[in-house]
Amino acid sequence: MAKPISIEVYNPNGKYRVVSTKSMPGTRWINLLIEQDCRVEICTQKKTILSVEDIIALIGDKCDGVIGQLTEDWGETLFAALSRAGGKAFSNMAVGYNNVDVNAANKHGVAVGNTPGVLTETTAELAASLSLAAARRIVEADQFMRAGLYDGWLPHLFVGNLLKGQTVGVIGAGRIGSAYARMMVEGFKMNLIYYDLYQSTRLEKFVTAYGEFLKANGEQPVTWKRAASMDEVLREADVISLHPILDKTTYHLINKESLATMKKEAILVNCSRGPVVDEVALVEHLKQNPMFRVGLDVFEDEPYMKPGLADMKNAVVVPHIASASKWTREGMATLAALNVLGKIKGYPVWGDPNQVAPFLNENAPPPAASPSIVNAKALGLPVSKL
Ligand SMILES: NC(=O)c1ccc[n+]([C@@H]2O[C@H](COP(=O)([O-])OP(=O)(O)OC[C@H]3O[C@@H](n4cnc5c(N)ncnc54)[C@H](O)[C@@H]3O)[C@@H](O)[C@H]2O)c1
Ligand SMILES: O=C(O)[C@H](O)CO
């Protein structure tokens, strides 16, 4: 028999049972559910990654909706269990939902939510931080100081790369990729080259306008280019940041061949998903090219790193914290809870998942809608007017 899972319960007499597989930041999300007659159960098990069996035990016999995490494998088994328990809604507390089998959710009539928009700037800021940390060798220099090795200023000590005037390459210029591009262009006056399946007209207009502003002020204008292929970005950019979704078209997008295409002193940043990069090939490339640097927030086999990566001085590594600002994490929890609540209450789906601000205003009740349901069309859910 499966071991019982420890939980914390809010509003025990609530009509609808909503389970969160993790404690999430803030209390607004709990209050919003309680106000709408939900009993909220939060898993308090001291185990970072829950197994499918753990989550089946949490779902139990009656469950109206679940808020889950990107570390969980939401496939046929879990959606079948949720549907058997009468559940109609699941939301990832994440914008990326590569851990979710949406076809299985469709089969069981379960709405799948995600949390776009609220993490765009926070994630882009971490990508910018990793770009700078790699360019200016901040982690290496910090370790050197703490080791007591600094015995005076030297002309060659931790010389890195100047970003101004260089080219930033963005692969996947969606919400986060575009926000990162703007930061690097505006903040460091870098020229932009990007590759995406779609044209990012707003981003192009921004760079054009900023270039004109610089020119009018007697400075070198910045430029932009939409690349016809990813290889063009890899060849031309000095700093390359990866921001696509993870699917079969982006799995190992960066591999031995693509790494070889990049400049020997380029910087590669990954704040998307680990498997977008072939990490074994990356470790080998870092070994062969000491001037090549990386900033990684995500890893192919999280929570592990591929052998050798931890020893590489030319790698800056952080544990999947790109969305970890207080405001963003509280907002993600709110959006995830409202996705589930909206489906339970029979509300329509919000018309534009890129405009989620009304759900995040703490001083006003949220709209009666689910902010972002990725399979709304497949399930034929009604869409709200903005
Ligand atoms: N590290 C983190 O903590 C963290 C935080 C937030 C998001 N993410 C990841 O970032 C991803 C992007 O988030 P977003 O909100 O910007 O999503 P988005 O949908 O706005 O942007 C993704 C972009 O990738 C493009 N794309 C898809 N396939 C591509 C391909 N084969 N080649 C080039 N471009 C391609 C899309 O056209 C789109 O413009 C998420 O799916 C998630 O996996 C990670
Ligand atoms: O996809 C996401 O939202 C992140 O990886 C976690 O913030």
UniProtKB/TrEMBL annotation:
<keyword id="KW-0576">Peroxisome</keyword>
<dbReference type="GO" id="GO:0030267">
    <property type="term" value="F:glyoxylate reductase (NADPH) activity"/>
</dbReference>
<comment type="pathway">
    <text>Photosynthesis; photorespiration; 3-phospho-D-glycerate from glycine: step 3/4.</text>
</comment>
<comment type="similarity">
    <text>Belongs to the D-isomer specific 2-hydroxyacid dehydrogenase family.</text>
</comment>
<dbReference type="GO" id="GO:0005777">
    <property type="term" value="C:peroxisome"/>
</dbReference>
<feature type="domain" description="D-isomer specific 2-hydroxyacid dehydrogenase NAD-binding">
    <location>
        <begin position="130"/>
        <end position="322"/>
    </location>
</feature>
<keyword id="KW-0601">Photorespiration</keyword>
<dbReference type="Pfam" id="PF02826">
    <property type="entry name" value="2-Hacid_dh_C"/>
</dbReference>
<dbReference type="InterPro" id="IPR006139">
    <property type="entry name" value="D-isomer_2_OHA_DH_cat_dom"/>
</dbReference>
<dbReference type="InterPro" id="IPR006140">
    <property type="entry name" value="D-isomer_DH_NAD-bd"/>
</dbReference>
<dbReference type="GO" id="GO:0008465">
    <property type="term" value="F:hydroxypyruvate reductase (NADH) activity"/>
</dbReference>
<dbReference type="GO" id="GO:0005829">
    <property type="term" value="C:cytosol"/>
</dbReference>
<keyword id="KW-0520">NAD</keyword>
<dbReference type="InterPro" id="IPR029752">
    <property type="entry name" value="D-isomer_DH_CS1"/>
</dbReference>
<dbReference type="Pfam" id="PF00389">
    <property type="entry name" value="2-Hacid_dh"/>
</dbReference>
<dbReference type="GO" id="GO:0009854">
    <property type="term" value="P:oxidative photosynthetic carbon pathway"/>
</dbReference>
<dbReference type="InterPro" id="IPR050223">
    <property type="entry name" value="D-isomer_2-hydroxyacid_DH"/>
</dbReference>
<protein>
    <recommendedName>
        <fullName>glycerate dehydrogenase</fullName>
        <ecNumber>1.1.1.29</ecNumber>
    </recommendedName>
</protein>
<dbReference type="GO" id="GO:0051287">
    <property type="term" value="F:NAD binding"/>
</dbReference>
<keyword id="KW-0560">Oxidoreductase</keyword>
<dbReference type="InterPro" id="IPR036291">
    <property type="entry name" value="NAD(P)-bd_dom_sf"/>
</dbReference>
<feature type="domain" description="D-isomer specific 2-hydroxyacid dehydrogenase catalytic">
    <location>
        <begin position="35"/>
        <end position="347"/>
    </location>
</feature>
<keyword id="KW-0323">Glycolate pathway</keyword>
